[in-house]
Specification:
The protein is mainly α. The chain has nine helices and four strands.
């Protein structure tokens, strides 16, 4: 009887694993097909939100203040913070690059369980709404993030198990790959915003620490991919015993 139960359990877990691979294929394939980026738009918007929120949270951890967060329809965003100092600026810049990957890894692992996927999506929706109330200060960000939070709650409460697992895995993968989707930004010293030349996050790190911006860009990309690989292992490989 135990062997039959283990077989059924393993089959069910393999079915859930398919949701991870479906989310991975969607993440990698949709940007390269017509209207694919439109379909992924809400998840890309969440990645922008996670990036800017990462800046703000790390600014608070560095002893500074997080004044406001802006999200724009072109997937751009701004986090306004102050009082972090030179090293704190590097730490805060790294928070926007690695914060989403760390959060994504946690979501992939916790969102792979039948009993916890619902709570992961609900918790994520609560964090989104909390940010809307506390720091989001433009109308597009307020409306779009509120709609995203409502959609997450709807899937968590009314969606079938497969949809909860799929959405959680897709959000986690998108967060982990956020740095990879902006490689040109990570390997750029400066960019233009509102007619002003601004230092990129990696250049801000380079200004405060040793080694050039491209080193930090490469390191962030490697760490982000490492987090994705580790979370996949913890969520799916080890529970299934795929490596013996």
């Amino acid at each position: 009887m135990d062997s039959v139960d283990e077989l059924v359990s393993g089959t069910g877990q393999n079915s859930l694993l398919a949701m991870f691979w479906a989310a991975a294929i969607v993440s990698l394939a949709l940007p390269h097909i017509p209207y694919g980026r439109t379909i992924l738009y809400p998840f890309s918007l969440m990645s922008t939100w996670a990036h800017e929120l990462g800046h703000g949270v790390f600014a608070l951890l560095a002893g500074g203040s997080f004044r406001k967060l802006l999200i724009f329809s072109n997937l751009g965003g701004q986090a306004h913070f102050s009082g972090v100092g030179s090293l704190g600026t590097a730490f805060t810049a790294a928070g926007g690059l690695l914060g989403p990957a760390i959060a994504g890894g946690i979501i992939i692992v916790a969102g792979s369980r039948e009993t916890s996927a619902q709570w992961v999506l609900t918790g994520l929706a609560i964090v989104v709404i909390a940010s809307v109330v506390l720091v989001v200060r433009n109308s597009f960000g307020f409306v779009s993030l509120s709609l995203i939070a409502a959609a997450l709650v709807a899937v968590a409460l009314y969606g079938p198990l497969a949809s909860r697992i799929f959405v959680a895995q897709l959000v986690g993968i998108q967060f982990c790959l956020a740095s990879w989707s902006s490689l040109d930004y990570m390997f750029t010293r400066h960019f233009e915003r509102d007619g002003k030349l601004m230092s990129s996050d990696t250049q801000q790190i380079a200004d405060a620490l040793i080694l050039p911006y491209w080193f930090w860009g490469g390191l962030v990309a490697l760490v982000s991919f490492g987090i994705l690989a580790a979370s996949f292992y913890l969520a799916w490989v080890r529970p299934l015993g795929l490596l013996g």
